[in-house]
Design brief:
The complex is a heterotrimer of chains A (338), B (375) and C (1152).
Chain A: H1 3-32, E1 73-77, E2 98-101, E3 103-104, E4 119-126, E5 130-138, E6 154-160, E7 176-182, H2 183-191, H3 196-199, H4 229-232, H5 236-239, E8 253-258, E9 265-267, E10 273-279, E11 282-290, H6 296-303, E12 308-315, E13 327-328, E14 332-336
Parallel strand pairs in A: 1-4, 1-14
Antiparallel strand pairs in A: 2-4, 3-13, 4-5, 5-11, 6-7, 6-12, 7-8, 8-9, 10-11, 12-13, 12-14
Chain B: E1 2-6, E2 11-15, E3 24-31, H1 40-49, E4 62-66, H2 77-83, E5 86-89, E6 92-93, H3 98-101, E7 137-139, E8 147-151, H4 160-164, E9 170-172, E10 179-181, H5 191-195, E11 201-204, E12 209-212, H6 217-220, H7 227-230, E13 237-243, H8 253-260, E14 265-266, E15 277-280, H9 287-294, H10 298-306, H11 312-319, E16 328-334, E17 337-342, E18 347-352, E19 358-359, E20 363-364, E21 369-370
Parallel strand pairs in B: 3-15
Antiparallel strand pairs in B: 1-2, 3-13, 4-8, 5-6, 9-10, 11-12, 14-15, 16-17, 17-18, 20-21
Chain C: H1 7-17, H2 40-46, E1 50-56, E2 64-71, E3 74-80, H3 105-108, H4 111-114, E4 124-126, H5 127-134, H6 148-151, E5 159-161, H7 164-181, H8 184-193, H9 198-203, E6 212-216, H10 228-244, E7 255-257, H11 269-274, E8 291-295, H12 299-302, H13 307-315, E9 319-324, E10 336-339, H14 345-358, H15 364-370, E11 376-378, H16 387-390, E12 403-406, E13 421-424, H17 425-431, E14 434-438, E15 453-457, H18 464-468, E16 478-482, E17 488-493, H19 494-505, H20 508-515, H21 519-530, E18 536-540, H22 542-545, H23 550-563, E19 573-576, H24 590-593, E20 615-617, H25 619-622, E21 630-631, E22 634-635, E23 648-652, H26 664-671, E24 677-682, H27 687-690, E25 694-697, E26 708-711, E27 717-721, H28 735-750, H29 754-757, H30 760-763, H31 768-776, H32 786-794, E28 799-800, E29 805-806, H33 812-817, H34 835-840, E30 847-848, E31 861-862, H35 886-889, E32 895-896, H36 898-903, E33 915-918, H37 934-937, E34 960-963, H38 965-970, E35 978-982, H39 997-1003, E36 1005-1011, E37 1019-1021, H40 1031-1039, E38 1079-1081, E39 1088-1090, E40 1107-1114, ...
Parallel strand pairs in C: 6-7, 6-23, 7-20, 8-9, 8-18, 9-10, 12-13, 18-19, 23-24, 24-25, 31-32, 33-37, 34-36
Antiparallel strand pairs in C: 1-2, 2-3, 4-5, 4-25, 11-17, 14-15, 16-17, 21-22, 26-27, 27-28, 30-31, 33-40, 35-36, 35-40, 38-39
Helix pairs in contact in C: 7-28, 10-28, 14-20, 14-21, 14-23, 20-21
The chains are: A alpha+beta (338), B alpha+beta (375), C alpha/beta (1152).
Chain lengths: 338, 375, 1152
């Protein structure tokens, strides 16, 4: 079976189930947390951080007037958006920066007890072909390897695909779309897949079945490639088409849809591109979304450019962030300038 | 949070999901008195299931020496450090299970090992609990002791890995109770690795997803025992099913040994996952460590084992160990033989309590040769 | 980077992403999981295309028929066949499912060897060797020696891949040149000029073929395949006849090296007590015992597939007693356990005997009927009293019981028609008859305290036949016996003199001082043994056997067995377990390995005519610097044992000769440079291959194209290696094809067609006629047809050996049917009156200290003075009493009492050589198979690490030394540190290491220190199974980017950074095992021989002995910084964190 077919079937299955997934999740969340859920007050550093409402996922509207006005993300129009192969392109210096406050995710289990990243710097531009965002945050050192108890830095942008989609990864029949970048994937793309030898250079294995070696008599050579179906038999996740097990990653960005916590679902062959670089204690990640009229996300952008919403999540690999252990924002207004 | 009764701790306990019993539950009995730590089980499993790149340090099955051994390092003591001492009153557990420890609604109590903790998989091999002296002499219970603990996934009734997965990518098969990590949906969060008290879920470094012992389901589906059981030359393992929909059956060797006679005991029942590998405790080891490891009933089990020669029905069940690669669902003692039938009701085992002896003539007329014992 | 995919692509993608979708529900993962399609990938992984059966047969005494599962033409997985319970004998008797399964982790790991990078893949020549041949065999004009620096740089040279024709041609030419060079007086002159001992040179009798040595490692493991080496040696007579121009009458073949004795597997006291090779029994028999003594044997590690018989016997109520020098793995299956001082087994057994006798617990009847204890020994000369000494014109009785006496000119029947022991009339006369003191008769008694008189005891009179004779022997007392020549001599019974020795020197209190075993526990054990006649098994391992006093150990243990009626019964017997040795199960093998090369039987249906042209020899002499034992002015190696110089070596299945030899680096550095040709048949590149000139790559067990046969000494099965359907993975051939190919090269060189005819059936691609001949002429095989056996084996089913009993046990005929043993008296003999034994002070059974592994003076006789204890002193031999060097110790007879001994100390103790270093075998390897496979090595002890975080690690697993934690601390050694381990600097790791830094860098033993609470103070242990360092691995570790100790040229991997466990051992040879006068049953047949008999009466060495000094080399932390992590984390003995302490003390459980 071809890879994309598998993925579509996967997609169909999982997106479809989203509603019920969410309901269980929500129930689960209430069961999980019998204690009253408190409003998390943003700390001083994140003065204008989004306020996370008590209910899991407030409707897809900007935070109510009662609260401090959330910062607005402006997508300014320029003739030609900076190319994504250089996140440090001087062109970005001319683009306005919006600072967004982050708070640890503490709505659904497993929660992030204590956050380590409080601020995110957001820039966004568009030309007639692409939307490009540049996201920056402080990070003393890089976490870009994945191993037992080792996790990667990452960031995601989230957009509602339906009105009233909760910021908590959407809800039943209220899907969201996410664009998700991982430092580990960036490393795969920049330096080649980070395999066993990359993680543990002194490893010595006698053989890997059907890994084509230097000669026929060494067809199982440990230094051979496992890029073939016979060798893949022992790599069941890869064989099952698990997007995590991609040994030939072309993009550091994954596109997902979700209908609630735990339902994040990979969308195959996304045209989204991105690149992240780390410099002097800061990450700079650009994410590029080509414009297509058939794209449900772009359709929403075009329908009401000045009434868009966006939310962010940031993962600190050095603080064992992964999955629900992340710093997040509520929905923030996003205005696309024509 | 649902409440469910856990027979191993004789009380109700918290668990995120409501009880749904599989049609039958795959289960194992391991006799520690027969284990020789040869690691044949380990290699049988490794060569079939985990020979791939990214699985170098992954051994779904391992055998370790207690008290100094542990793969990964200190998998059990680190959890006990978190949970504190367990408290038994008779057969009832009064301390908290891993599902209750962190407070309601929190993930199960656990700890996440590091990559280094999977090095030295046979650390502590044969290490004695105490330093011996020149001329040490042991009689009966050994005051310096060690024994072997063979370990696989327990395919628990209350799997902590399953409870901990926010994506619900871990499930328990309704037909046999085998617990699997969905290799298609797992995103490698490692919450299961952290939650499993037995550390039998592993992170695959190149798949960047977690994986675990699959209970050899492709074999179980065909009525065959797991590879670690089939290859066990110590004949320490019996693989079968516990009855879940009916009362324990006298003629089901698993029910009989585990539920009816209670000769074999669960590993760390105090954690509350209701594991399905049951151990016959080592008779030469002092009780306290075994109480900590196997919970209530150690003394009784050891006495029962010491008395096997007068306990033919139970001895018969133990003679089935290693006799056949088929799963035995029914057995009987007939005279000096133990007889076993497989899932299809076919007789697959007829094993004598003592190997028969045959005598031959010195001169074999049929073949014209003198036979010798001293050649 | 491109700025976005084309609109078309996006279009499709967006369309796909917005399809209508069917909901998926995960309500409760305890049931109804919706996404299970992926499970099929595991089903596919499990699926194999086909499977076939092969036999795994390292020298581990088991042999397992295994299933190989094939995926895409590759064996990716192995499993047990469960065919043993279908095994039947010729009468249809069947084995039970108790035998299942038979397999182990080492066999399962073979898949990684079949396809591993260290396979011998194609024929290889060492560069320098090729050059020597190409340059026309240049030699020193005076001595004929080959320039070692130019042509013999073994282990350092490059390798050249060649074709099979080339490798055979080079080999045959080299061997021919060597044979020619050392033929005749000129050849013998050259050998003398090269400094070989004149007695050895004389032994060649001028035949150059006598310096060619062949060895098939443990020949019983391959009836045609490995035995082919001896057939090859026999065929060298053709070469001799060509070179010397002599006929079949004068031609001499090559020399064939020993196996069972070379491996120190023979319990040398067994032939000394029973007159034949070994007493043992199938291990399953212990379930018939009430009391099981597992003595110096780590059963659960070295007898894995039979471990369940022990644990199940215990489960069913037998008591298991384990005696070992540490808390061995097997001790965790013990009901009672003794931790004793290494090498003191003779003393411990004698202590048991003393209690049994002094407490009157012995079985009088068995002792009277089956032992020499009632027979009289002369106090004047220490000889057994002979009937002809006493009774005028005495003529030896006609023997009828269990013996065939051949009259002059009569020849032995073929093996399968030999009913019992076979004696020549001449020998029968030499033996005469013996005398006891009969209380029922008067006879020529000249008074004294006793009534009665001497009575003849013939060899027939054993067991019931003895009692039918109406004799009532005295067991104790001193008797004045009037001899036929009129003189009177004082005689005492063997029992009486033995008892005196026991009571004076081996009381429990004295034995406790020697062995550390508590006196009360010794008494308790002795009483238990005596309380269980016919129900006590003495399961003796190779631990005590690998000490220099091993024959005394056997004699003492047999004494305990005999005193308690525990010899020769299914539940009561003595067994010694080491090596798969009993080649006599293939007694018909003489049809194959000694077929007359001058009269070859080419008709497959007709029997061959055996004639032995090759001469057996013990490797121990080669291992002893290619010398024998001289001491002072004495030669203590019997004439029948003297070896010839070794100039050419061709071995098969034999890594023990070089790669894992005792004193390995002595062999490599000092012995090999005098050897001109070394060829090795191997399928996995071993340390032996590292030092070879020629490597013949052979088929692995999974690739056999010719069937073969073997047996197992610990189980009752007859095994066939089936030919397999697996295509050869590399350019390999079968061992028999190598022999045939080599012979073909000889045929071309000599023009002698018989070299080809000798392997006719191999050349025709069908070895079955050879196998069938062996079956037809073997006592316990005749009746089986090779085709049937093959067909069964292909289904994973072995056959059953047709011994008298199933299961088998030696001694059945003697104890149940009152047949005599293979001794002169027909009894179990506890007194040896041969002059060599009297001179060695070992005519009686006593205790000698180990020759090196003792805290006290080595190899001294520990006893109080005794009238029959009259050894030759160093002075008698013209040697210095003060010379305690390893060589001198071998023949040094000094007597000390227990208390005197305890005042002495090992000569090197004052220099810090204070630790006993022993090297037993462990669960992770059958010798070195397959410990260098990653998934085996990583489980071998505590230092495995697949990721090799510390690049100093030689591979993913590495060898270590087990030390008592307090001993290590005393030396400032932390656990995990690398340490140096040095033995006697006089001869180890090799003579002259001081002047050879390059070799010393490779040879000096370095390993990790491991804190091991289970070993007593002063006793250290390193496992025998690891692959030693070679020049290649030491160089590799320096060059390899990750520091892997792998030879860049050969790919050989070591588990040591430098040295090996054999850096500390050496060859030792014991005078009592090199006698010319001892009578023993021949190796293959029932014929009684005298003097040297390979694998029966032959030196065994002392490979487990070494006193070492241990010094810290490097810290154990990664890269040599700080503590080894597990110690740092408080997980290790003496490093325990509070958590570890509480965990072990069970502080995490509260009961109320």
């Amino acid at each position: 079976m071809k890879r994309d077919d598998t993925n579509n079937r996967l997609l169909i299955g999982i997106i479809g189930g989203a509603a019920l997934i969410l309901m269980t999740m929500v129930t689960a969340i209430f069961l999980v947390s019998r204690r009253p859920i408190v409003v998390i007050v943003p700390d001083k550093q994140a003065a204008n951080a989004a306020t996370l409402p008590a209910t899991p996922g407030s409707p897809a509207t900007a935070a109510s007037p009662a609260e401090a006005p959330p910062p607005e993300i402006l997508v300014s129009r320029i003739v030609s958006a900076p190319a994504i192969d250089n996140p440090l392109d001087p062109a970005w210096d001319k683009v306005a920066v919006v600072e967004v406050g982050l708070a640890p995710q503490q709505v659904a289990q497993p929660v992030l007890e204590k956050g380590t990243i409080t601020k995110l710097r957001v820039q966004a531009v568009r030309d007639d072909k692409r939307y490009v965002w540049r996201l920056g945050w402080d990070k003393p050192q890089i976490a870009e390897t994945m191993d037992t108890a080792k996790f990667t830095d990452a960031i995601a942008m989230q957009f509602p695909l339906a009105d009233n989609a909760p910021y908590t990864m959407g809800g039943p029949g209220l899907p969201v779309r996410m664009l998700y970048w991982r430092a580990a994937w960036q490393k795969d793309v920049d330096q080649g897949f980070q395999g066993v030898a990359g993680l543990h250079p002194n490893t010595d294995s006698d053989l890997y079945w059907f890994a084509k070696g230097k000669s026929d008599s060494e067809q199982h050579a440990a230094d051979g490639s496992t890029d073939n179906e016979m060798a893949r038999q022992w790599m069941v996740a890869a064989k099952s088409g698990n997007p995590m097990a991609d040994y030939n990653r072309k993009q550091p960005v994954e596109e997902l849809t979700a209908h609630g916590f735990g339902s994040g679902t990979h969308i195959g062959d996304s045209p989204t591109q991105g690149r992240g670089v780390w410099q002097a204690g800061k990450w700079y990640v650009v994410i590029d979304r080509p414009i297509s009229l058939k794209d449900p996300l772009i359709e929403r952008f075009n329908a009401s450019p000045d009434k868009q919403l966006i939310a962010f999540a940031v993962w600190d690999g050095d603080n064992a962030n992964r999955g629900g252990k992340k710093q997040i924002t509520n929905w923030l207004p996003m205005r696309i300038l024509q | 949070m649902a409440k469910r009764f856990n027979w191993q701790i004789d009380r109700e306990q918290e668990y995120p999901y409501e009880t749904l019993k599989p049609k039958r539950q795959v289960a194992y009995v391991f006799d520690t008195n027969k284990c020789i730590e040869c690691q044949t089980c380990t290699v049988a499993c490794k060569t079939c299931w985990t020979s791939g790149k990214g699985q170098e340090t992954i051994f779904w099955n391992n055998v370790e020496t207690k008290p100094y051994g542990g793969y990964p390092h200190q998998w059990d003591s680190r959890l006990m450090e978190k949970c504190g001492p367990c408290e038994w009153q008779g057969k009832k557990l009064y301390s908290l299970t891993v599902f209750e420890k962190n407070g309601e609604g929190k993930p199960p109590a656990g700890h996440l090992p590091t990559e280094r903790d999977y090095a030295s998989p046979n650390i502590g091999e044969d290490d004695l609990s105490e330093m011996i002296d020149q001329g040490s002499h042991f009689d009966g219970t050994h005051n310096g002791w060690m024994f072997y603990l063979a370990r696989i996934c327990n395919h628990c009734d209350n799997p902590a890995c399953l409870a901990a997965c926010p994506r619900k990518a871990i499930y328990k098969r309704e037909e046999d109770g085998i617990v699997l990590v969905d290799q298609e949906r797992c995103r490698g969060y490692q919450h299961c690795v952290e939650a499993c008290p037995y550390k039998k879920v592993f992170f695959n470094t190149i798949n960047r997803a977690s994986e675990k012992c699959i209970g050899c389901f492709p074999r179980v589906e065909q009525g065959n025992v797991a590879l670690c059981v089939e290859s066990c030359i110590g004949k320490i393992r019996l693989h079968g099913f516990l009855s879940t929909q009916e009362e324990p059956r006298e003629d089901n060797p698993l029910d009989y040994i585990v539920k009816i006679r209670k000769l074999a005991l669960p590993c760390y029942p105090q954690f509350g996952t209701a594991p399905n590998v049951f151990y016959i405790p080592p008779v030469h080891v002092p009780d306290p460590f075994l109480d900590q490891l196997f919970g209530p009933g150690v003394e009784e089990a050891k006495a029962m084992y010491r008395n096997l020669k007068n306990d033919k029905q139970l001895l018969g069940a133990l003679m089935l160990f290693g006799a056949s690669p088929r799963i035995i669902t029914r057995y009987e003692v007939q005279g000096d033989e133990a007889v076993g039938w497989d899932v299809d009701g076919k007789e697959v085992v007829r094993v004598p309590f003592t190997e028969p002896t045959y005598f031959r003539k010195h001169y074999d007329e049929t073949h014209g040769a003198y036979r010798q014992n001293t050649v | 980077m491109a700025t976005g995919a084309s609109a078309a692509v996006i279009g499709q993608w967006a369309l796909a992403a917005t399809q209508d979708i069917v909901p998926l529900t995960i309500d409760n993962p305890l049931s109804n999981y919706p996404n299970r399609d992926w499970e099929k990938h595991y089903r596919n992984l499990y699926q194999s295309d086909s499977s076939f059966t092969f036999l795994c047969a390292p020298n581990d005494t088991h042999n397992c028929l295994l299933n190989a599962h094939v995926k895409n033409g590759v064996v990716t997985r192995i499993s047990p066949t469960f065919g043993f319970s279908k095994a039947t004998d010729l009468e249809g008797n069947r084995a039970s499912q108790r035998w299942e399964p038979r397999v182990c982790q080492k066999g399962l790991a073979l898949v990684r060897r079949f396809y591993g990078d260290r396979r011998c893949k194609r024929p290889m020549l060492r560069k320098g060797f090729k050059q020597w041949v190409d340059e026309g065999f240049p030699r020193d004009p005076q001595t004929g020696a080959v320039d070692p620096d130019k042509y013999l740089r073994r282990g350092r040279d490059a390798w050249v891949a060649v074709t099979w024709d080339e490798v055979f041609d080079y080999s045959a030419r080299a061997m021919t040149n060597i044979a020619e060079t050392y033929t005749g007086p000129a050849g013998q002159q050259r050998l003398l000029a090269q400094g070989y001992d004149p007695l050895m040179v004389q032994k060649t009798e001028g035949a150059g073929t006598q310096v060619l040595k062949f060895r098939g490692g443990m020949q019983v493991l391959g009836a045609t395949r490995i035995m082919a080496q001896y057939r090859l040696a026999n065929s060298m007579a053709l070469l001799d006849s060509k070179i010397r121009g002599v006929g079949p009458d004068k031609a001499i073949g090559a020399r064939g090296w020993d196996n069972y004795t070379w491996h120190t597997d023979l319990p040398p006291g067994h032939p000394q007590v029973t007159g034949q090779q070994t007493v043992d029994f199938d291990l399953c028999n212990v379930e018939h015992s009430n009391l099981i003594l597992v003595w110096g044997m780590n059963w659960i590690c070295t007898k894995m597939p039979d471990s369940h018989w022990l644990t199940e016997a215990r489960m069913k109520g037998s008591k298991v007693v384990v005696i070992a020098v540490e808390y061995s793995a097997t001790m965790n299956k013990a009901d009672e356990a003794f931790i004793v001082r290494p090498g003191t087994t003779p003393a411990l057994a004698l202590g048991l005997a003393q209690v049994i006798i002094s407490e009157g617990l012995m079985d009088q009847k068995f002792v009277m009927g089956h032992t020499d204890l009632p027979l009289l020994v002369r106090m004047d000369n220490g000889k057994m009293l002979q009937a002809k000494d006493v009774f005028p014109n005495y003529t030896a009785a006609k023997l009828k019981n269990g013996v065939v006496v051949l009259q002059e000119g009569e020849r032995s029947p073929p093996p399968h028609l030999q009913p019992t022991a076979i004696l020549t009339e001449k020998r029968r006369q030499e033996w005469g008859d013996y005398v006891c003191w009969n209380q029922n008769t008067g006879g020529p008694n000249i008074g004294g305290p006793n009534t009665g008189g001497p009575a003849v005891v013939t060899r027939d009179q054993v067991g019931k036949f003895f009692f039918e004779s109406g004799v009532a022997p005295s067991l104790t007392g001193e008797f004045q016996v009037k001899l036929a020549d009129g003189q009177a001599v004082v005689c005492r019974t063997v029992f009486d003199v033995t008892r005196e020795l026991l009571d004076s020197s081996y009381t429990p209190e004295l034995v406790e001082k020697l062995t550390w075993a508590p006196a009360e526990a010794i008494r308790g054990l002795a009483r238990q043994i005596a309380a269980n006649p016919e129900k006590t098994s003495f399961v003796m391992g190779m631990g005590p056997n690998q000490f220099f006093n091993n024959d005394l150990k056997d004699r003492a243990v047999f004494l305990v067995g005999a005193l308690t009626r525990n010899v020769g019964y299914i539940g009561g017997n003595v067994g010694s377990y080491a090596g798969n040795y009993r080649v006599a199960f293939f007694s018909g093998a003489v049809q194959y390995n000694t077929e007359d090369p001058f009269e070859i039987q080419l008709d497959p249906t007709k029997p061959a005519k055996p004639k032995r042209y090759f001469r057996p020899e013990s490797v121990h002499y080669f291992n002893h610097g290619d010398t024998f034992l001289r001491y002072g002015d004495a030669v203590l190696t019997g004439k029948t044992h003297i070896p010839t110089p070794t100039k050419s070596i061709h071995v098969s299945n034999s890594n023990s000769l070089i790669g894992n030899a005792k004193g390995h680096y002595e062999t490599v550095v000092n012995a090999l440079p005098r050897v001109e040709f070394i060829a090795i048949n191997e399928w996995w590149w071993t340390a032996s291959c590292e030092y070879a000139d020629v490597v013949f790559p052979v088929d692995s067990w999974a690739e056999f194209k010719h069937p073969d046969m073997t047996i197992a000494v610990t189980n009752p099965f007859l095994y066939v290696f089936p030919a397999t359907p697996l295509p050869r993975i590399h350019d390999t051939r079968g061992d028999v094809e190598v022999a045939a190919g080599l012979s073909h090269a000889f045929a071309k060189l000599t023009g002698d067609q018989r070299f080809d005819d000798y392997w006719k059936f191999v050349n025709e691609g069908n070895v079955r006629p050879y196998l069938q001949r062996i079956l037809d002429y073997s006592n316990d095989m005749r009746g089986y047809k090779i085709e049937d056996l093959e067909a069964k084996a292909a289904q994973g089913i072995p056959a059953i050996v047709q011994t008298r009993t199933y299961p088998k046990y030696v001694g059945f005929e003697q104890s149940h049917e009152d047949r005599p043993w293979y001794t002169r008296t027909g009894r179990l003999e506890f007194y040896r009156d041969e002059q060599e034994f009297i001179d060695a002070g070992e005519n009686m059974v006593l205790h000698r200290e180990p020759i090196d592994s003792t805290f006290y003076e080595p190899n001294v006789i520990v006893a109080k003075p005794h009238p029959l204890l009259r050894p030759k002193s160093p002075e008698d031999y013209g040697a210095l009493r003060s010379d305690l060097s390893g060589d001198a110790r071998q023949a040094r007879n000094v007597i000390l009492t227990v208390d005197e001994l305890l005042q002495t100390e090992h000569p090197l103790k004052k220099y810090g050589y204070e630790f006993i270093f022993h090297t037993p075998k462990y669960r992770h390897g059958a010798h070195t198979t397959p410990t260098d496979v990653d998934i085996i090595a990583v489980w071998f002890g505590p230092f495995g690490d697949m990721h090799r975080a510390d690049r100093r690690m030689p591979m993913v697993g590495e060898m270590y030394i087990d030390m008592h934690p307090l001993d290590a601390k005393k030396l400032g050694i932390e656990e995990g540190d690398y340490v140096w381990i040095d033995a006697d600097p006089k001869d180890r790791p090799f003579h002259g290491w001081q002047h050879n830094p390059a070799a010393y860098e490779v040879a000096r033993l370095m390993a990790r220190a491991r804190y091991y609470p289970g070993t007593p103070r002063g006793v250290t242990r390193m496992w025998h199974n690891a692959h030693g360092a070679t020049f290649g691995t030491v160089q590799g570790a320096k060059q390899h980017p990750t520091g892997l100790a792998q030879s860049p040229t050969s790919k050989y991997k070591a588990m040591f950074r430098s040295g090996s466990h054999q850096s500390c051992t050496r060859g030792f040879i014991k005078p009592t095992q090199m006698t010319d006068s001892l009578y023993v049953k021949e190796q293959f047949t029932q014929d009684i021989g005298q003097g040297f008999v390979a694998d029966v009466n032959c030196p065994t060495g002392a490979p487990r002995e070494a006193m070492v000094r241990i010094t810290r080399a490097e810290p154990g932390g990664i890269g040599g910084k700080g503590l080894w992590r597990p110690a740092e984390l408080g997980m290790r003995p003496t490093y325990e964190s509070d958590l570890t302490k509480d965990f072990i003390a069970a502080k995490f459980v509260k009961k109320s």
